[in-house]
From TrEMBL:
Native species: Nonomuraea mangrovi
Region (Disordered): 1-31
Protein name as annotated: DUF5319 domain-containing protein
Biased composition (Acidic residues): 1-15
InterPro entries: DUF5319
Length: 125
C-alpha cells in the first residue's frame, strides 16, 4: 500500500542535504576502453578467487586514491561491483568491511604475481 511507503521529508526542499550527492541515477556510461578494462578485471578476479580462496584469502585490499586509505573487498563484493560497473557505469553502493583482518586479504599485485607463479609452475611441468 502506498501509505506504508515512507515519503521523502526533503522533497522539493531547496536545502535538501542529499543534494550534495548529486543525481545517482545519471551515471556516465563507460567508454569502450573502460568497459573492456572492467571485463578484464572481472576475469582476473575470477582467476584470483579460484586460486587464492582455497588458500584462505577472503578478497583483495585496494588503495583508495580518493581517501588515501585501504579498502577491503571480499570476492563477491568485487564481482558485484565490477558487474555493476559493466552494466550501469558505476559500482554499487556497499558497506565497507567491518574490522577486517588484513592478513585475510591480498593486494591486486600480490594476486597477479601468485597467478603468474602458478602459470609458470604449470608450464614447467
Amino acid at each position: 500500500m502506498l501509505e506504508d511507503v515512507p515519503q521523502d521529508p526533503f522533497a522539493d526542499d531547496p536545502n535538501d542535504p542529499s543534494s550534495a550527492l548529486g543525481d545517482l541515477d545519471d551515471a556516465e556510461p563507460l567508454t569502450a576502453a573502460e568497459r573492456d578494462e572492467a571485463i578484464t578485471d572481472l576475469a582476473d578476479v575470477e582467476v584470483f578467487r579460484s586460486l587464492l580462496e582455497p588458500q584462505g584469502v577472503l578478497g583483495l585490499v585496494l588503495d583508495c586514491p580518493e581517501c588515501s586509505e585501504q579498502h577491503f573487498f571480499d570476492w563477491e563484493l568485487l564481482r558485484g561491483n565490477l558487474r555493476q560497473m559493466i552494466e550501469n557505469g558505476q559500482p554499487q553502493v556497499h558497506e565497507p568491511a567491518f574490522h577486517p583482518d588484513p592478513s585475510n586479504y591480498v593486494s591486486w599485485e600480490y594476486a597477479r604475481g601468485y597467478v603468474d607463479g602458478v602459470i609458470d609452475t604449470e608450464e614447467r611441468h
